[in-house]
Amino acid sequence: MVTMTTHQLHPIPALTDNYIWALHDGAQAWVVDPGQAEPVLAWLAAQRLQLAGILLTHHHGDHTGGVAALRAATAAPAWGPTGEPLPDGVQHVRGGERVALLGRSFEVIEVPGHTAGHIAWYCAGFAPASIDGPVDSAPGFASASELASAPAPGSAPDLVSVPAAASAPDPASARGQPLGPEGLLFCGDTLFSIGCGRLFEGSPAQMLASLDRLAALPDSTLVCCTHEYTLSNLRFARALEPEHPGLADHQRWCERQRQAGRPTLPSRIGLERALNPFLRSREPALRHALQRLAPKLALAGFDADAAPATPEALQTGLAAKPVFESAPRWTADVHAFTALRRCKDVFV
Ligand SMILES: [Zn+2]
């Protein structure tokens, strides 16, 4: 059952391309992965809100850098994953544990891969009443007069246009329709719109299992990723599948959002299941596309006359060589996923 509330969801731009997601009820606010304190404190002051808590998904500095200053200024409690080095005073939680947040219960889902202890925060059956703006100017972010795009005809005036949950062949066709979100997910750097996080500490098998776990959530779940990577991810996805009509349509929508200074997020699980190559690595069409693209990327890494973009890209390309060579013999799902992730790593 979906429970409508007065809660509002707001992405606070930070650093180069981070969003610090905030959820508030008009009096109290929680924030997720505050990589900086200053934009959060400025937003709290402007909105006359009190910080009631902080949720963390993993230990990277662009997700935790503002915790100490925010706690010093507000004494707000904070929760983060067990087994990761987190700022002093952060309480550690494991998968299945819950934290109460503005009258809602958020469940911890363990999603290792990007880091060894990465978690996601999920609230089932909960729909924020709106996603409010404006998006303030920040480094790397265009300023915008408002976050909300024009609502679809007949929709509630304060409900912004977000990608629709859809399993239809053209998932973008219903975009903007208020389908009633059935859940809210803060997934850090595990699932990005049309992409996924790099594997810094975990294995491809761990990341595939983590993405499977998130992909099993209801289609209309709002997906709050931490980075504005969607257009970059779409370039890779379209290099894989140039003829995919859903990707082309979604790219046009995302370009309009960014040109207007609006986020391409939150996404929805249904849209990601339909378009995100990292949630589709078992599909025959995706695997055929991967086998076409993989040798081209591998060659770029091995051509002595063609300098790779970075030493890191060369190293990744070399490490990926056995995977590319074995492409016709992929027997396990994780082989295809590994090749896909490594193709993205060397894609320039
Ligand atoms: Zn990270």
TrEMBL record:
Gene3D superfamilies given in the database record: Ribonuclease Z/Hydroxyacylglutathione hydrolase-like (3.60.15.10)
Catalytic activity: an S-(2-hydroxyacyl)glutathione + H2O = a 2-hydroxy carboxylate + glutathione + H(+)
EC annotation from Swiss-Prot or TrEMBL: 3.1.2.6
Cofactors demanded by this protein: Zn(2+)
The keyword Glycosyltransferase is annotated on this UniProt entry: no
Alphabetized UniProt keyword annotations: Hydrolase, Metal-binding, Zinc
GO molecular function, one term: hydroxyacylglutathione hydrolase activity
Keyword Hydrolase included in the entry's annotation: yes
InterPro entries per the UniProt record, alphabetical: Clx_II_MBL, Glyoxalase_II_hydrolase, HAGH_C, Hydroxyacylglutathione_Hdrlase, Metallo-B-lactamas, RibonucZ/Hydroxyglut_hydro
GO annotation, biological process: methylglyoxal catabolic process to D-lactate via S-lactoyl-glutathione
Family membership: Belongs to the metallo-beta-lactamase superfamily. Glyoxalase II family.
Protein name: Hydroxyacylglutathione hydrolase
Species per Swiss-Prot/TrEMBL record: Serpentinimonas maccroryi
Gene that encodes it: gloB
